[in-house]
Amino acid sequence: MPPPNNMLKVGGIEISEASSAQPLQNFAINTGEYKLALFRTLLGTSNIEHPLTAKKSQFKDINSKKRINCFTVPFDRDNSVRTNTRIKEFSSAYLGEEYPIEKFGEYFKDTCNRNTDFYKRLLTEIAYGILYREKEPITAFVHLYRAIEVICFALPMLVYTAKNTDYIGGFTALQNLLSGNEKSEMPFFKKYLELLVKQDQEKSEYSFEIIVTSNDTDNARRIKTKLKTLCNSEKITLQERSDASVPDATSPDLSFGMVEFYQFICALRNRFFHYSTGNRGDNFSFSDGIVNPLDIFYSANDVILNWLAIIFSDILIEELKSYSGSN
Predict the structure, then answer these.
(1) Surface-to-core class of residue 242, CB atoms within 10 Å of its CB (0-12 exposed, 13-18 middle, 19+ buried)
(2) Distance (Å, rounded) from C-alpha 134 to C-alpha 66?
(3) Per-residue pLDDT tens for 30-42?
């Protein structure tokens, strides 16, 4: 049986409208419109449900409805905020007066059939990451990392295509990205991020901040030490805080720029999941006193979602510019 018109099924997950109110024109969740559903999901204006939650014991503790705004820090968890309000707030913050919300909606309507496999895969991984983020943070991290792998090669291609009406210039830019000794898509994406930050002053000032949270203060302290050791051994530069001398409960324990946070995510994945014996001090061995590894990922996942949302917003903006210029 096909899903109803106001619901989309992807990877076993059902994504539907968060309320009975009518969304703005061209912003309703519909079958097959994966890019719009991804936007609405990251914006926190959709419900994410797994139909097996009531049928399989391994899902019984997972809250099936997740509504968080990944475009804000900290996340906006106020379910009373209406769908259209959040859409308008995003449009005002990211698009400004140059691209009215009507044009934004037309863009989704007219481009919904482009790159559908890319957006479908990205939506699947991010939706699972959100679904599991509270109860199973390690599982959530795996899905969010898989989302990063989806974007690592495809996203630079999509953004450069959107940015360049000069196709010779666009080809040259991609050729420069692809040149060098990189053997995989991960270094390729790092190079892309470095160019993105260099070309965009606002993005160079972004800060992605982790506050380590744990019910055990000793465990939190050990995790902070371990993460800082990891950054030091991987030569990941942490941002300096101007108010570092007066820490409080909301002060970040680690703060990263856009490129550096990407390096941190990759390093965390490598040192935790590719654990090996030896003399490496940055591998995660629980003989060093970390008693709850869930706290590592519970603290990091929300920031990863925010980082992914910012990356996703870049392609929306660039595609919208290209779309508006051709209409």
Answers:
(1) exposed
(2) 10
(3) 878 999 999 999 9
CA angle centred on 218, ends 214 and 223, rounded to 5°: 65
What values do phi and psi take at 17, rounded to 5?
-65, 145
Is residue 28 classed exposed, middle or buried when 0-12, 13-18 and 19+ CB atoms within 10 A define those classes? middle
- Using alpha carbons, list the distances in angstroms from residue 256 to 93, 203, 306: 22, 12, 13
- Alpha-carbon span 293 to 286, nearest angstrom: 8
Confidence band, pLDDT 50/70/90 cuts, at residue 269: very high
Give the gyration radius of the chain's Cα atoms. 20
Region at 32 (left for phi over 0; alpha for psi -120 to 50; beta for the rest): left
Around 215, how many Cα atoms within 13 Å sit in the side-chain half-sphere? 3
Comparing CA positions, the residue from 161, 154, 148, 173 lying closest to residue 264 is: 148
Element (H, E) at 268: helix 258-273
Strand segments, DSSP code E, in the chain are 7-10, 13-17, 46-49, 208-210, 254-256
What whole-number distance in Å separates Cα of residue 200 and Cα of residue 82? 31
- Give the pTM: 0.86
Q: Where are the domains of the chain?
A: 7-135
Lookup: tokens for 185? 């898509």
